[in-house]
Design goal:
The chain is an alpha+beta fold and 115 residues long. It is built from 3 helices and 5 strands.
């Protein structure tokens, strides 16, 4: 949970409070595995999270082999630093839901501080 709090610092989302807008996150497929010889013919293995505040970049990827139980992780991207992947979710949608929840909590915390 500590890593999530770093990703969603109230300072980052203070602009959201001023505009009274709650971002809605969504997934954009970025990369697919392949079935047979054709690239991009298999399931999605990497998503970009859309709907984040300007200047933020987070991806969600699968980290287990195709024949094993899938584990999805998310990672924030900062220029000049390696991505730190965290979490263990059964689906990309579960990972996205956790990010959305943390984003909403950060927005509430900013509102409480501002009062």
């Amino acid at each position: 949970m500590y890593v999530l709090r770093l990703l969603f610092s109230p300072v980052v989302f203070s602009l959201l409070e001023r505009n009274s807008m709650k971002p809605i996150l969504s997934l954009k497929p970025i990369a697919q595995s392949r079935k047979g010889v054709e690239y991009g013919s298999g399931p999605v293995m990497l998503y970009e999270v859309q709907g984040l505040p300007a200047g933020r970049a987070i991806s969600i990827r699968i980290v287990r082999a195709q024949k094993q139980e899938p584990v999805w992780r998310f990672g924030a991207h900062f220029k000049g630093y390696p991505t730190r992947w965290t979490g263990a979710f059964k689906t990309a949608e579960e990972a996205l839901a956790q990010l959305q929840e943390n984003l909403d909590e950060a927005d509430v915390e900013v509102g409480e501080v501002a009062q």
